[in-house]
Amino acid sequence: MGRTYLVEESIGQYLTELGTRVKPYATGLLIGQCSPQRDYVIRAVRTPPKEQQQEESLGPPKLASLDEEWITTHASQVSRMLPGGLLVLGVFMIATPELAKDGQNALRKLIFSVEKSLSKRRLWKPAEEEVSDRAALQICSATKKVVCRTYDVQDPKSSAKPADWKYQSALTASWVALGCTVNVNIHIPLLATSPNHDLEKNTKNGLNRWSKQIEDSVFLINGQVKDEDTELLEGQKKFRGNTQSGTQFSDVKVLTQLCQGASARSTATVQVCSGSINLRGAVKCRAYIHGNRPKVKEAIQALKRDIINTLSDRCEILFEDLILNEGPQKKNFGREYHVLPQRLFVPVAGSSVMLSDYKFGDEAAGEIQERFVEMLDQPVQAEDMHIAEDIST
Hints:
alpha/beta, about 30% strand, 2 domains, 7 helices, eight-stranded mixed beta sheet, Cytidine Deaminase, domain 2
């Protein structure tokens, strides 16, 4: 039997409207959460149009002209805006009947490209029992027929499996939110043998070591250490009501080990260094987990990934900004301070889940609003943007 996708009702309306606006085809991403029993789709986001597409659309429509790189770049940008527990669950295509027969091949190709692009940036490894099926949703713009199939992204030879696509209202009403603040103080030595300009690579290596520390940390949920296999909400009263007040919030403390356990063998190495990078500050992290009897280990895994992702994403954004403003050939390597972008959270209309973004100190609210419209096809009010942190360096 194939997987079941429970889908926020408003997505059906969004996809129908998109089908009437965009001809001959439209593509986009499905955003949500995997669980062992079923997957939850809470948003669908169309691929932003490219400026030159207007001229190209004069010829006969062809799916061969799909810009794979543009779609995977969009997926990478969107994945930065997702808090823990949410991921790009698949891709969709709305196409005219004459393009329908090539649609599934195009979707299959896109699913594997998107997954390859996203996994390259991750500093964590998927768990063995993790769901690796991703959705390919095809909708005919004329008949409105919906066909949902899945592909196993861990298997390059994977063939399509049928899946159920079911709409449901108030999908996230009973979801649980988890939040924590993590104090970061990471020291990354720069080896004398390593070229100085390779700061990005050195930073990534340092973050890789730090991410293993986070993986080995102890997580206290509302002040308690809970067994991984117990239910997260065990012993708690469930709330019912509207989507906002229905969310239960759990406060989490992260305890990192100061040193290796006595049983672990430690080997010290002396290396000649030409400098170092220090990352310091407090980062706000957040994860969401479905309300269908979630396990403690699912919640902790989602929060761990948010902690690791939020720091590596910010460093990536900072390096992109430096290359943009100063060029890749920067030669001056004295002591420098760079402020990492701050995290902000924005509510999703009709949902208890918030999405995230990053803001440099000199960025205006209007720029962030534009980014939400471009990346997530969602208008955002300036007063709804909650900056979560002080400045980190």
